[in-house]
Automatic annotation (TrEMBL):
<protein>
    <recommendedName>
        <fullName>Metallo-beta-lactamase domain-containing protein</fullName>
    </recommendedName>
</protein>
<dbReference type="InterPro" id="IPR036866">
    <property type="entry name" value="RibonucZ/Hydroxyglut_hydro"/>
</dbReference>
<feature type="domain" description="Metallo-beta-lactamase">
    <location>
        <begin position="152"/>
        <end position="204"/>
    </location>
</feature>
<dbReference type="InterPro" id="IPR001279">
    <property type="entry name" value="Metallo-B-lactamas"/>
</dbReference>
<dbReference type="Pfam" id="PF00753">
    <property type="entry name" value="Lactamase_B"/>
</dbReference>
Amino acid sequence: MSPGYLPFAGALDLPAYTCDNCGFWQRHFEAPAACPMCLDARHVVPQKGWQFWTEREAQARFPCHWEELEPGIWRFWNDPVSGIGPSAYLIQTPAGNMGFEACPVFSEAALQHIAGLGGMRVLSASHPHAYGALVQLQDRFDPELCLPAADFAWSAALQVSWPYDDFLEPLPGLELHRTAGHFDGHAVLFDRSRKILYCGDALKFELDPGDFRRALTISAHKAFVRGVPLTTNELRRYRDVFAQLDFTQTWTPFEPAANCGRAEVLALIDGMLATRPHAAPVPLDTLRR
């Protein structure tokens, strides 16, 4: 059990339901009437009304897959899947395993695989769009759950044991930095030894169809689905965070962009700060000139 944990009146004993339209999980005594994530301005409501799935129903509908992308880094994802469909990453370290983001639903086989890797000591996510099935990971492995206090209102289905403000290093060499912007509590994870930045939805990429780890374009948004740009002050905060992190790869909840690092990201932001913020994709090659 996580240090400082105090159980509260059966809240985590309620069944969990996931929204078919966006993948956000809620704990409720019955299927919820609506989904707060779909009603948020960064998303859209389902045109034919809401459909919620229990854990077993979601497991039956959305097969779970996993692979080791680099030594000690595992990716979990669902295909086919409805909703936002983020990936989950499990990072193995000498001090224990850290999970970052979650896929929409973990199969029993996937959970057993994680157990075989040593379970999970720490768990976090960049923002609510990538929470996925954090509820399953917390229920199964009881890790320390580290989330920014600024997004606490979105964590009703979870038990946050380690809230933080702007920075946290929950395991040696793994740093959480709050960028804000896309969400008030949006955060990135920096793996110092591997020089990988898990950027959440701070950045978006279009990938080479022949190489899913090679990004062709990069962009940044306040709201991706609606094409809303970030503000100038939000971009400045992004830049302040990214400038201090020496990363050579930038991985989103959907794809690992191995060919984009700090130089390209700062060039994108500087370009928008020099004119007017926009949400258009920018070819990576133009940021290297």
